[in-house]
């Protein structure tokens, strides 16, 4: 399946040490990519590396705060030294803050925007030279930005999160239009309700869980492993003529 073979390619996955990011990183590793996991928690990074090494791929990790420009420079420099030039960038790191719009703290708004949107721009800019050079290595450079179902819908109590994830879609389209001339594909994945540490409390909220199941045509939440296929497709040669899209991976929630 050469269309989906990532052997020899180097991927960075921000926030790749748990949850959806770990599912994305595992998919890339299973397809043969060398993967750099970055996250703020060293212990979680180590656990992710141990899990991904079972795929047989070359894996490394680095403790990084993605809102720090210095940390991001260190991330890219260390990736080049440890694994090689970056061919695939997955911008997954993100945070959530909830509060009614009329009292949403400005500091929370800024924190969410810095983590969910501003640092994505920084990462893309830092990766540009490597990604543009991927053509010389025989393939397209790939950027995969992680949005959300709230890239499509409003959220009355998560205005910053929804705005940041809506911004991901427009950023993806804009970079796709700008960088196709450099053989760089820029696409987004919009996860639906996925079973992660962040969504675990929903299991103790039967009414909300029922609402999610009822709206989702598959009548369940997704597993982090089910994020892998979309990541591999958008990272591989199979998607070389696909750019600027936002792909929901939500069991049909967005059409239910």
DSSP strand tally: 7
H/E topology pattern: EHEHEHEHEHEHHE
Number of domains: 1
Secondary-structure-based class equals alpha/beta
Q: How large, in whole angstroms, is the Cα Rg?
A: 17 Å
On the 0 to 100 scale, the average pLDDT is 95
Largest sheet, order of strands side by side?
Answer: 3-2-1-4-5-6-7
Uncertain segments are none
What does this structure look like?
The protein has a seven-stranded parallel beta sheet, with helices on both faces. The model has no long low-confidence stretch (mean pLDDT 95). It has helices at residues 19-30, 42-53, 69-82, 106-132, 159-179, 206-215, 228-235; strands spanning 10-14, 34-39, 59-63, 88-91, 141-146, 184-191, 246-249. It starts with 9 loop residues before the first strand and ends in a 7-residue tail after the last strand. It has a single domain, classed as Rossmann fold, CATH 3.40.50.720. By secondary structure, it is α/β, with parallel strands linked by helices.
Keywords:
41% helix; seven-stranded parallel β-sheet; Rossmann fold; 256 residues; single chain; globular; 7 helices; alpha/beta
SSE topology sketch:
Layout: E1 10-14, H1 19-30, E2 34-39, H2 42-53, E3 59-63, H3 69-82, E4 88-91, H4 106-132, E5 141-146, H5 159-179, E6 184-191, H6 206-215, H7 228-235, E7 246-249
Helix pairs in contact: 1-2, 1-7, 3-4, 4-5
């Amino acid at each position: 399946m050469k269309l989906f073979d990532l052997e020899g390619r180097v991927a960075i996955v921000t926030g790749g040490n748990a949850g959806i990011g770990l599912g994305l990183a595992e998919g890339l590793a299973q397809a043969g990519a060398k993967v750099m996991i970055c996250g703020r928690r060293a212990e979680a990074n180590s656990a992710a590396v141990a899990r991904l090494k079972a795929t047989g791929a070359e894996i490394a990790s680095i403790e990084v705060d993605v809102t720090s420009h210095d940390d991001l420079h260190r991330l890219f420099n260390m990736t080049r030294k440890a694994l090689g030039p970056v061919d695939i960038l997955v911008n997954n790191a993100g945070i959530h803050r909830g509060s009614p719009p009329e009292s949403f703290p400005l500091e929370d708004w800024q924190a969410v925007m810095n983590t969910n949107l501003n640092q994505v721009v920084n990462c893309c800019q830092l990766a540009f030279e490597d990604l543009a050079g991927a053509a010389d290595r025989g393939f397209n450079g790939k950027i995969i930005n992680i949005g959300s179902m709230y890239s499509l819908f409003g959220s009355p109590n998560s205005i910053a999160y929804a705005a940041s994830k809506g911004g991901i879609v427009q950023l993806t389209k804009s970079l796709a239009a700008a960088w196709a001339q450099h053989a760089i594909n820029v696409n987004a994945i919009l996860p639906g309700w996925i079973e992660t540490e962040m969504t675990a409390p929903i299991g103790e909220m039967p009414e909300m869980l029922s609402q999610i199941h009822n709206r989702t045509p598959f009548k369940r939440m997704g597993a982090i492993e089910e994020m892998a296929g979309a990541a591999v497709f958008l990272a591989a040669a199979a998607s070389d003529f696909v750019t600027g899209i936002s792909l929901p991976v939500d069991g049909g929630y967005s059409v239910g």
